[in-house]
Amino acid sequence: MKQIFLTVVLLLAQVFAWAQEVDLAKGTIGIDRAKGIIVATGSGNALETIDFEGKTYKLYRTTMPLVNIVTDGPIVNSPAVHGTISVADANGNVIATAEDYLSVAYVKHYSLEAVKTDIACNADDNGSITISVLNNNSPAADNFTYAWSGAVSGLPSSRAVSGLQPGSYSVVVTDDEKYCFLMESGAGSGNSLLVKSMDNPDSPFVRITDDQDYFYSPFEVIDDQIYIFTNYGADKGRVCRVSAKAPQIANWEEVIPEQDNVIVAAEMAAGKMIVTFDQDAANHAFVYTLDGEMLHEIALPTFGEVGFSSRYDEDEVYYGFTSFVYPMTVFKYDIEKNTSTVFRAPQVDFKPEDFTTEQVFVISKDGTKVPMFLTYKKNLKKDGTNPTFLYGYGGFNITLNPGFSTSRLPFLENGGIYAQMNLRGGNEYGEEWHLAGTKLSKQNVFDDCIACAEYLIENGYTSPDYLSLNGGSNGGLLVGAVVNQRPDLFRVAVPQVGVMDMLRYHLFTIGWNWASDYGTSEDDEAMFKALYAYSPLHTIKSGEDVHYPAIMVTTADHDDRVVPAHSFKYAAALQAAQTGTEPKIIRIDTKAGHGGGKPVAKVIEEQADIYSFILYNMGLKYPEK
Prior knowledge:
globular, 10 helices, alpha+beta, about 15% helix, 8-stranded mixed beta sheet
């Protein structure tokens, strides 16, 4: 299965796919209101026909984006992705939908409003369909069924998957369309895994794993051997394979065992495997045989982040690479010669040779070494006057790898330092590193951040008058907690869309899903006390001797991941407390959410406001040109 991790590589792959399409048939949209039928196909190559009540409908593969049509009549919904059939009865009740070879059907027992608010269904260009059950009031699990259009000779027709619980369900079909994998997540930090043979439409899903404590990522099936990347039995990851005919864990064969560094990705390429590791938060990629023999390392330009686009049965391999002063560049890779050539590089108006990046290791409160990347102009003077943007996250197994951002360039070009911390709670060193920053150990994350700030000050990179702390979502929690504990370290703080009420976070939207990292106030007394001890909303200091940095809280009115109430309450509590003379303000974006998919104009406006707030409160400004 093709795995594409970087947007530029994805766009490149789409260009190639479009170039190969020839003799495209015209698609049609047909509506039969008497029967309650809608057929939305768009344009593309006809895959097959579907017969329904004596009529034949053509199903097309299409490159049309996801659209929804909601009317007052019997036609309820029609997502036009990869060629879609939707069936509704005369009362507007959805009977079934079929999308490309794989379809997702929902037998409606609830009102239309419940369908729209409780169920999310998305499809992407890689052939994956995801169903998300958004809350516990959603329809019963046995209402969800998965069907294949090849088996649909008379709609509705489907095969049920039993035992589904509220959470997220992802379906992936192999490139040869012989196998379908179903991944269930939401109850833990990983996912469970099921597989189904596509040769027999009536065959059931076979459960491979039934826990969600580990991740199980199938990335290819070759000669009926499933290759799986997992951290089950290996905190830092391993690659296994197993026969699709008996895929249970007891039958797994280890191909690449756990290493000193964390495995972060695996894919097939030109008859071999490419496995990517994290070494001190920077990607390193190696080529292996299918039996796990390491052949060679792929030389990357510097420490950074890499993502591959490749197939087992094709010689062409591409990868995208980026680092702090290295814009996303697409390389063509010759796997036999182990050579890379630039395929496409962006034109960015700055001089990367004027900058340098170093990695330092900071000793945290308990003696743990914490990596931190520092990027700045060469010939920097360590006199404590350099404005510094300190950024961190520290949670949910997320690794902060080096990456390029145009929004940072003006700050760097005018003498700023960008410092990126790799705090506990992430996946930089595997599951042990992750767990060391969760639940009753969450304070370790804040201690790591405080140690990094102290390092920058003690080593002359900056001083409290020129140090800003920034982070978003879980990183917003980081900013709020650390500022409450050590307000003396910072001149400015910008918590973005942060989780600020740790006692009630699990009661809103998807918050319950974060309990695997945070725990909840309802767990037990020890967990309640631990959360209360660092909850930003509940630990704001107040008094004549309290001096907080300037703080700009950011949120958005349509954020349904971290609801804006977190930021509203936190900002109000800050303004009500006696925290000194520096400004405490909140920036509320409108017609926006948690951040993903935000229009470029809004991104520019937000970044301009953030950097302006930072520089203004440091008494600095960019020189006029």
